[in-house]
Amino acid sequence: MYAVIKTGGKQQRVQAGDVIEVEKIVHDGETVTFHPILVVDDDGKTHVGAEAAKAVVTAKPLGEKKGDKVKIFKYRPKSGYARRAGHRQLLTLLEVEGVKMAAARRPAAKPAAKPATTKASKSSEEAEPATEADAAAGPAE
């Protein structure tokens, strides 16, 4: 089972046991969960959209490191303009523990029907008139 997750503006295909590098994540606790999942493949059956949104990917942080240095050089000929710069992105190493689909929810059980009350079970004071003519006449005294 694998999933495509979105983190740090990038997408990555992950499955249980993978170690991935993502942009630095500040995490609290021992696990990190990813929810906006784009695609989930469950033994050949692909889930997208609302079905994939129910899935959860859990990962355990292993540590942090710096990425490769990116060299930036800007140059304009005949003007004496040249600039150098560099950048090293901070990365977090994550070990994917599992990809899980949410369990299918069963519909809630309907409440039991109330037993029907009959006119005989009501007292004579509470009994309703049997016809509209009796209702117009008013309560019997």
Structure notes:
With 141 residues, this protein is mainly β. Helix content is 7%, strand content 50%. The strands form two sheets. It has a four-stranded antiparallel β-sheet with strand order 2-1-5-6. It has a four-stranded antiparallel β-sheet with strand order 3-8-7-4, with no helix packed on it. It is elongated. It starts with a strand and ends with a helix.
Helix and strand layout, with pairings?
Layout: E1 2-7, E2 10-15, E3 19-23, E4 32-34, E5 37-42, E6 45-48, H1 50-53, E7 56-76, E8 81-100, H2 132-137
Antiparallel strand pairs: 1-2, 1-5, 3-8, 4-7, 5-6, 7-8
Compact summary:
By secondary structure, this protein is mainly beta.
Distance between the ends:
77 Å
* Count of DSSP strands: 8
Can you list the strand order of the major beta sheet?
A: 2-1-5-6
Count of DSSP-assigned helices? 2
Structural class: mainly beta
H/E order of the elements?
A: EEEEEEHEEH
Judging from the principal axes of the Cα atoms, what is the shape? Answer: elongated
Low-confidence stretches: none
Assess the beta-strand content as a share of residues: over 45%
List keywords for this structure.
8 strands; mainly beta; 141 residues; four-stranded antiparallel sheet
